[in-house]
Every structure is written in structure tokens, then in C-alpha cells.
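Async update (no meeting this week)

Hi team, since we skipped the sync, here's where things stand on the single-chain job. The sequence we agreed to prioritize is pasted below, unchanged from the tracker. I ran it this morning and attached the output directly underneath so nobody has to dig for it. Comments welcome in thread, and please keep replies under the output.
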Amino acid sequence: MKKLIFVLLTLAILVISTAMAADPINATTETQGISTTTGVVLMGTMTNSETVVMTASTMDLRDNPPLGAIGLIDLGLEPGESPNNGWGVEDELLDEGWAWLLLPERQAVMSYTESVLADNGYSEFNEMQSMDTGNKVANQKNFASTEQFDFVAFSDAMGRATTSESLLLDLVSQGSLAADRFICPFATGDQGFIPPCCNVYEMGSSFTGTQVSELTQAGTNFIAKSADVPTQASYSVGLSGTGSAAAWINAHVMEGRTGGYYPFEGADYWWVDFWNYDMNTGSPYLGLGGGNGFMQGVDLVYKEKTTASGVIEAFSKSMAIQDGVRRL
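Output:
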């Protein structure tokens, strides 16, 4: 008996609450732009594969982990002192050979992989890819991909097509001073700080079968001049055909809050010590035993996957994430 499956699914946009605080990475002075366009029409076999991995940091990513700048001359740190519990710059004793530097860091990792294998059939394949490392605003993307793929197997040659695609965005931050990161005068952060975060998002799709007509779109932005621009990731797939299809989204979000903090400022230095009064951890200068001075306010795990197998009349899934202190 002929098997018919009709699937039409749209995932409501997954948006990150305003309590969360992913701060995008600002661009380097020199930026790069890469774009490709591909078109293939054939009877036979074709392959296409792509891999993009980009790591960006506000400091030197070569010494990570751990995050954070720790620099000093002739001056030792207290046990447990790190950018997780104290930030500051002190150079008032620089003429005497003493200096202090303890600053937080932000890092983002973006990854995209795609592969298409069409064997013994008629294929039409078109794609447009672009990568830009410059600062973006909310309606622009650092990476964007659009792909269209049609395939019909030769009935006498055991033809088959297999596709897979995945987009990942990993955001890690030790926090930052809100006054240094916002253009909007009404965006104050959390007690004047953008707290730390550790967020990872992954979404994608796959298909294998004897015939398919498929369209996918992927995009993300995570490089911006200020924290007014939220980081974003999106992916959508629409297809019909005969075979097996799947689409998914996985997210793990850990967001911080600012507990107690103690600022110090002089002519040639500024300093902030943090205190997690719930865990009683933070700067050892406050008589604490070290550890992370920030609080974790959110731990969110979200997973969703949709599959279909048979004669698929329609399969559609759309996913989007917007993460930032100021969301649209």
C-alpha cells in the first residue's frame, strides 16, 4: 500500500529573555569578506561540502583557556584572584616597576558544516554563501547561506541523495562594563555590568532518499560595535520527496547576575571586586576564598527534533534565536 506522510511544522521563534546578556564581539581593525555562488545541473553523480569555523575574542584567543587578561610586574596576585572575581587596571606605581592588569574577556565560536551527495540521478544544485567579519547591525549577518537542491534517482541504477547541514554558535563571556558597551543611554545592564554568560546553540537538518526538492537557509550575526545589537542565529528547511528527513535545535544557556560589588577608583587606577553573597565566593581581598564572584541566574536546556520517513508531501521547520541585553 502506498504510504503518504504530510508534515508541516514550524517552530515558534526561541528568544532569549531580557535577563540574559550575550555581548557580541567587536570587529578587528582589518575585516574580511568571503562570498561564493554555485550552480550545477547534471545527470550522474555530484558532491558538495563546506566547512566554516571562526573564533573571535576581545583579547588574544591564542591563550584561551582560561579567559581573561592577567598581567602584572613585580606584584603577585592573591590566591584565587582572577577576572571572574575582580576587574581592574592599576598603574600608579608603574614608575617603580609595579603594575596591575586584570580584565575580563569575551569569545565567540561560529561553526557551519554542509555536505551533499547525489549519486546516479538527475540533480540541480544552487547555493549562495557569504562570510563577513565586520561589525553588523541587527538586520545584517556575519554568515549567511541559501541552498536549493533537487534530485530524482535513476530507477534502474539504485540512485540516492544524502544531505546534511549544521549551524553552531557558542558564546562565552566573563562580563563587561555596561557603560562601555551601550550606545543607548537607557540601557544600564545589571547594576552597571553585563554579567557573564556561557551559551551554545546548534541547529540543522538532514535528508536521505531517492527524490527530493529542498531549500535551506542559515545565518548568524555575533560581531557588533556595541551591545545594543543582539547576537542571532537562524535556520530553516523546507522539502518534499521520498526518503527520510530530520531537523533539530539544541540549546544550552547559562546566564549570570551581578551580586555584590565594590568599586575603587583613583587618579591612575580603577578596580571592581565582586561578591557572590549567595555562595560566599568572590575576591579574596574581601576576605573570601576566591572563586567566581558572579551569580548564575539561568540554566536552560532546550532540545527539539522532528523526523519524517516515507513519501513526504511537505516538511518545514524554522528556528531562530536572539540573545542579548537589548532584543528587538
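Quick observations from my side:
Residues 69-103+259-293 form one domain.
The chain has one helix and 17 strands.
Reply here if anything looks off.
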